[in-house]
From TrEMBL:
SUPFAM superfamilies: Calcium-dependent phosphotriesterase. This is Strictosidine synthase. It comes from Azomonas agilis.
């Protein structure tokens, strides 16, 4: 009996050590760039960075995507000096420049999409679990990350204060992007899909079989997709010729990709509390 107990204890310890080793490996295994690309840490010590953008003065605006009123929005100047813009938020996620200010959303429930302008916060419209915010001219688009086919794609016009529902019955729709050529794509994360928006309402599957696609970006390189998973996540690029290329692998909860210059980007890596700088090699 004692021998059996010792064996069981040894097996339990071995399982515990193996599990701890596995999670440590997941966390510390270095991000791997694809041939032709390099990366470096741009900023660290940012808790769960989610959305990111550059303003007209090249300041980095970034959200700390924390729950229970612990979320914040920071402005970080080119020298690294940080200024707190907004706090007491619950999973601030969407972020965009709009109507001479900064619009932001919160993903942790029914919260309004707000406009921060001249130091004042103004609610624009209500939504639930609003994630990505995207701007096209005078229009602001918002997408809701809700389970059970309850999500919506919304279009807001500030001048008329009007809100239109472009899509409903979406399942965990996290991202929307509008490409330079006018094409629009959005994700349904749990289903592993990127769908192409069609004006006739008959949206088609553009990419499938992905691992929790959470953020989209589009430029001349093609359509970028980051996989919002806690381990072995990838940053993918779907080129105009149809090739799907892995640009970075072994990421931990990558979020928004934002351009600095052609072939030069910032990537929020929420799972490691940092912002990466990604660059295409000559």
């Amino acid at each position: 009996m004692r021998a059996l107990i010792k064996i069981n204890i040894s097996l339990a310890l071995l399982l515990t050590i193996s599990t701890a080793t596995f999670f440590a490996w997941q966390h510390f295994y270095p991000v791997t760039p694809h041939s032709g690309w390099s990366y470096q840490e741009r900023l660290t010590d940012i808790q769960s960075p989610g959305a990111i953008l550059l303003d007209s003065q090249k300041n980095i605006i970034v959200t700390e995507e924390l729950t229970k009123s612990r979320g914040k929005i920071w402005k970080i100047n080119p020298e690294g000096l940080r200024q707190l813009l907004v706090d007491n938020l619950s999973k601030p996620d969407g972020l965009a420049l709009y109507n001479e200010g900064i619009v932001f959303s919160q993903e942790a429930g029914p919260f309004p999409v707000n406009l921060l302008r001249d130091g004042k916060i103004e609610p624009l419209f209500n939504g639930t679990n609003v994630q990505t915010l995207t701007v096209e001219g005078e229009y602001l688009y918002a997408i809701e990350d809700r389970k059970g086919y309850q999500g919506r794609l919304l279009q807001y016009h500030a001048k008329t204060n009007s809100l239109n529902i472009l899509r409903d019955n979406l399942d965990e729709a996290e991202a929307l992007v509008i490409c330079p050529d006018g094409q629009r794509f959005y994700t349904e994360k749990d289903r592993g899909l990127v769908k192409k928006f069609s004006e006739d309402g008959q949206d088609s599957i553009y990419l499938q079989g992905l691992h929790q696609p959470g953020s989209l970006f589009c430029d001349a390189q093609g359509l970028w997709v980051s996989e919002d998973r806690n381990h072995r996540a990838r940053l993918l690029l779907r080129k105009p010729n149809g090739e799907l290329q892995t640009i970075l692998s072994f990421l931990k909860s990558p979020q928004v990709l934002h351009p600095i210059a052609p072939g030069h980007y910032l990537l929020a890596e929420g799972g490691r509390d940092r912002i990466l700088e990604l660059k295409q090699l000559d």
